[in-house]
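seq:
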Amino acid sequence: MPQVQAFLEQLYHEFKGLSTGKLASYIPELARANPDWFGISLVTLDGRSFEVGDVNQKFTIQSISKVFVYGMALEDYGREKLLKKVGVEPTGDPFNSLIRLDEDSKRPDNPMVNAGAIATTGLITGSDPAERLNRMLAMFERYVGSEVFVDVSTFISEKTTGHRNRAMAHLMLNFGMIEQPIEEALDLYFQQCSVLVTAHDLAVMAATLANQGVNPVTGQRAVGAEHVRDILSVMYTCGMYNFAGEWAFRVGIPAKSGVSGGIMAVVPNQAGIAVFSPLLDGRGNSVRGVKVFEALSQQYGFHLFDLSLGRCHFAARD
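struct:
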């Protein structure tokens, strides 16, 4: 597929000079990133990789982790029981907005905003904090295909400065939306956001979801196929926060962003794609990343409605 590699290289050179946006600064460790880092990775369902730029540069996964922890909670509880704990309604609010209490259901709006993610993480089963962390790391490793680690300095940075997330947790405790011990849930949440990945790793993880939950490189199942539709649905409606509607209009594929500069997207039955570039727009999404995905969707017909109408040009290039 030489055309795919050539197009990725074209996009890399086209957007590499784009210097608008700012580094995330509310977590001190994230402000240390190099604003010039930029990598694009695409992994197909047969495990082939097409990449350009800083695809092996490690960074913390941040909010992209919410996708996979939600899948883990689906496996632990099932969709109906989990739906009673965490909703699936898009909010149109920023990722770190304070929770709005649903008077009837007493649950956060969705698992992709911080409040819902903290509640979801608090549901992960295990006899003690170490077992829950090890289960979570093992889950990430099935998606990545290799061992993963928590970046301790970022974890400590988030734990020390995460007052807003801590306030959300106490509000949810007050409203009966989560249960004690909330400090254990918060620690696990900060740890999941501090897992180190690369753009290549994220593309493999996305390709795993595109491949019905089976890692296309290792052949190992990472999540049950019956949960993939629910995961992708929440990504599509809620994964890009208060940019979700415009993303669905312009790009049209399930995606998730993180404030370290990653964007991961799933083209069902086609490929997983990831872009890493730490300069963020006002909504917390990678500036270069958004541009790359808009171009890829237009070039190959990746939009879900293009896919459903047979207008995807990607497979024909194989």
